Amino acid sequence: MTLNQIRTKYVEYLKARGHTLIPSASLVPQNDPTTLFTGSGMQPLVPYLLGEPHPKGSRLVNSQKSFRAEDIEEVGDNRHTTFFEMLGNWSLGDYFKKEQLPWFFGFLTEEIGLDPKRLYVTAFIGDEKNSVPRDDESAEIWQELFAGKGIEAKIVPIGSEADGYRLGMQGGRIFFYDAKKNWWSRAGVPENMPAGEPGGPDSEVFYDFETPHDPKFGAECHPNCDCGRFLEIGNSVFMQYIKKEDGSFGLLPKQNVDFGGGLERISAASSGNADVFLIDVFVDIIDLLAHFSGKEYADSRYQRSFRIIADHMRAATFMLADGVRPSNTERGYILRRLIRRAAQHMMKLGANDGEKEDSMLIRAAIIVVEKYKQAYPELDGEEVYEVITEEIWKEQVQFAHVLAEGVPRVIKIAQTGYISGAQAFGVSSTLGVPFEMIQEIAAEHKADVGELDFEAAMEKHREVSRAGIEQKFKGGLADTSEKTTRLHTAHHLLLKALQIVLGDQVKQRGSNITQERLRIDFSYGQKMTQEQIREVEDIVNEQIRNALPVVRSTLPKEEAEQLGAQHEFGAKYPDVVSVYSVGPAGASERDPQFDAAFSIEFCGGPHVSNTSDLAGTFKIQKEEAIASGIRRIKAIIT
Hints:
Blueprint (H helix, E strand, L loop, with lengths): L2 H13 L4 E2 L24 H4 L9 E9 L15 E10 L4 H15 L7 E6 L11 H12 L7 E5 L1 H7 L6 E4 L1 H4 E2 L13 E11 L21 E14 L5 E14 H9 L8 H14 L9 H19 L8 H20 L10 H13 L9 H33 L3 E2 L1 H11 L3 H10 L3 E2 L1 H23 L8 H21 L5 E6 L4 E6 L6 H16 L4 E7 H6 L13 E7 L16 E4 L15 E10 L2 E8 L1
Parallel strand pairs: 1-2, 4-6, 5-6, 11-12
Antiparallel strand pairs: 2-3, 3-10, 4-8, 7-8, 8-9, 9-10, 13-14, 14-19, 15-16, 16-17, 18-19
């Protein structure tokens, strides 16, 4: 089946079971500064998993475009991709395990037609330290489902992934693993979860391609083995726990289901071929590249390059459509790396990219647009077409200039017979020559490369980068601790106070909220005076003393805009939005007292229920310029 066929079948299957279709969120997260990209279907739904009512109801379905930068280096084998679509369905305090597991099993076996004998499942073995029990209920449900197909499903307790390579299959069908494999939260295992983070045990479904086990991965095969025999195609997360301030776990207000199924992987399973790059969208790109390069995909010398180009250009096309532009920092750096890495592997294939109209990368991007524009309208239209083609070509040209300067430098070093790790890292980090290319040049000149030293230098660089990102985004809005929630509400008061003091031309241009302080970026053309800063502080503190209720409402977007609800510039919002109003008492979406509210903003929460809960004095620590016409304030509550 094609991706479009499976996506449609899935949505219709869940709609027939009472689910409402919601649109895919952007690859650029809104109100979640903890990550550069949307990497899962649940990410945009965190406020609702924490208890906020969703405007579309308690049963939701969609296909979420997702990107995971950590998989860039893995691309080239038969199953890893950076961009992927995550089929998702959610129960927000509605159904739970007894409905979710049979529905997914039915979708796979009845709608997609997978042989149930090829399906294997896992469940959570429990966590005694955190008082989370073994998920026997899921195992029992799976046994009944397999029995309905005439399959005896033996339960095998495995534990860790390492234990799996030692214990093997043991004739099992249902396998218990530890938290590293069968617990899901955005922070990973329970010990890594910050206060306010939701999580829960999960149950994964694997498809068995029945390929021989490769013992280089471990003595025995098991569902989580990396040899390629098994492919995870879906994961039902039973989101029922929340990390408390004292480090223990409590129950969420409602039990939730957060399901994610890999669209590309289900498509591969439907064809019975373990190579994800033989699904329809990739095949069309690979055929294009093969035609113009004269190389064959089956040739092991070039297969990795075919896969990298196809994957990276799909990801780059979606990023460009969502507003990301190549640069040397953050999202832009990832996009630049994708395009340049694809260009590098295009050189390996020998396809002609001498002129823009000959660019294979642009032609690959056009295939992506044509394949996806019906499901993702943001890819359609002349304007986005121009952006995608121009940005890709511009990167190709700049990369050619980089190589023109950097490659002769590498050749000169290679002629000495040895390229040290420090030299390789220097050329790679400052001139932009990919390490793979450095290795190839070294081989051509029969020179050795200090790979271990290069990897050590690169890992040190990654650690510095990670520390920078963690510091920048520490405890961002996704952290729903009490301190962050208080500052989030103060942020709303601050924006309105700035508009009162400086004028209605003040608009929010960005924000970041940690447990220690709030930060707001806003449009204003000059430095604030000390008098203006004190006046803003006085207004915010007055609203705290006034003990105003903070009320959440759901409204059609147009109606919210007519009410003057504030929202972040450039952000995309659905047709029905969540709005928070601060004061007066009793304000709701049908209440004329909206007109008397101190502030109204598009927002998914969380917030305190009353401004008196801020329980302190609001203080601006710093006011500064960060760009032409854009100011930044950092503030605290003491």
